[in-house]
């Protein structure tokens, strides 16, 4: 059974990463937790490890490509296995994209602007702060 290698969330506000360099090629044997590729983001540069041991069956992003968090970067499986079982077909990808576009268009059309917030109540003017008292200087009488 093949396993998909996805781009993990590398930071709280990181939404995408650039594939800097592949450390393995298709057909290479990899061990669990062995580095597969290097990814650069605006906040961090890191290596993505292999989640399982096996053979690298497919690489879905080239170097310098930008991938979204959660995107499938590669497929790892047994040496005799093909990556076709884990990879979605182009027809299903196009159908998913069309459904997502239609759903987002419908959502945008139904969204009504929120009413303006009520004005804040007026604050009472602040009382002036008391002035510091001046201390009279004592003069030493001699």
TrEMBL record:
Residues 121-142 have a biased composition (Basic residues). The keyword Transport does not apply. Keywords: Lipoyl. Pfam families: Biotin_lipoyl. One of its GO terms (molecular function) is dihydrolipoyllysine-residue succinyltransferase activity. The lineage of its organism: Bacteria, Bacillati, Actinomycetota, Actinomycetes, Propionibacteriales. It comes from the Bacteria. The keyword Glycosyltransferase does not apply. One of its GO terms (biological process) is tricarboxylic acid cycle. Residues 2-77 form the Lipoyl-binding domain. It comes from Tessaracoccus aquimaris. GO terms for cellular component: cytosol. Residues 96-142 are annotated as: Disordered. This is Lipoyl-binding domain-containing protein.
């Amino acid at each position: 059974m093949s396993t998909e290698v996805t781009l993990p969330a590398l930071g709280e506000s990181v939404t995408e990463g650039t594939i800097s360099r592949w450390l393995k090629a298709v057909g290479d044997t990899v061990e669990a937790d062995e580095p597969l590729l290097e990814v650069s983001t605006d906040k961090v540069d890191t290596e993505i490890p292999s989640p399982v041991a096996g053979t690298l069956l497919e690489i879905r992003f080239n170097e310098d490509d930008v991938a979204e968090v959660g995107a499938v970067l590669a497929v790892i499986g047994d040496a005799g296995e093909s990556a076709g079982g884990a990879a979605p077909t182009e027809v299903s990808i196009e159908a998913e994209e069309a459904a997502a576009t239609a759903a987002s268009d419908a959502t945008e059309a139904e969204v009504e602007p929120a009413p303006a917030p009520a004005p804040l109540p007026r604050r009472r003017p602040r009382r002036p702060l008391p002035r510091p008292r001046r201390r009279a200087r004592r003069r030493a009488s001699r």
